[in-house]
Automatic annotation (TrEMBL):
Residue ranges with Basic and acidic residues bias: 46-56
Region named Disordered: 37-62
Protein name: Peptidase C39-like domain-containing protein
Taxonomic superkingdom: Bacteria
InterPro entries associated with the record: Peptidase_C39-like
Segments forming domain Peptidase C39-like: 107-245
Pfam families attached to this UniProt entry: Peptidase_C39_2
Amino acid sequence: MHRALGRIRGSRIAAVGVAITLAVAGLASPAAAQDGATTMSDAQEEAYKAAHDTDPHTPLSAADKKAAKIKEAAAAKHQKDKLAAAGAQKASSVSPMNSIGANNLSIVQQPQQTNYWCGPAMVSAMLNAKGVSFSQSQAASMMKTTQADGTAWSGINANVPSPTGYPVRDTLNYKLNTSFYVPHGYGSATSTEKTNWRSNVAHDIDNGYPIAGDAYEVVGGKHLAGHPNSNIFHWFAVFGYANYGATTNYIDSVSGATSVSWYASVKAYNYDFNSDNLVSIMSGRGYIW
């Protein structure tokens, strides 16, 4: 959960668990709202998100835009080289190695300690996977996570030197002493965004870095596995991919989090989630990669 959780176009709505339920009538069960079970087209979903979004979507600096372009080019080349290597193996009658088209990082899922600490739980798990011990409470403090608004996508300066207005990105880079992570926000899950995700997830995972995904789920739209058919903002960590990025593996901090009423329907480790659907789920927010 993160900033704007309790605010939809200026109206104040109480948060229950990690979900905001704007349309309570006819809610589907969690199982019915999983990957692909939708009543809303991508265009309808994106229009709804745009009409109700309250995040400021802080503009990237010129330096960040340049860094993002360089990283995107490197990711595209990385993917092109992987596909070429697989093609060469196939042409030589050698069975392609699974390591070319799939990869997973070692990461330990953490149940979020409060119903609004999905961001801190994700960041703590990501940093611990990189060998940096950082608790959920420390992450919540650094990212200025609040019960009212959770952890922001943008518009909040983390308690770090020279913050950029992207608290998750700034916390990860500060604690890892790197400039590796950049925000990638987008409003529409275009074919280009879906293609770029496959390259980007392979690039980061192959370089040993998990990705911070920011889900923006709406009633009738696509949802993460096990999530109810409600309006939900939710941070989650991507730790792997398969089929050259066509499917994505992620951890979900709701699993085991008894403060969330529907925690039992969510798995800690989620494998082979359709990447195109995931890109749609993150539209209106994005990911830190």
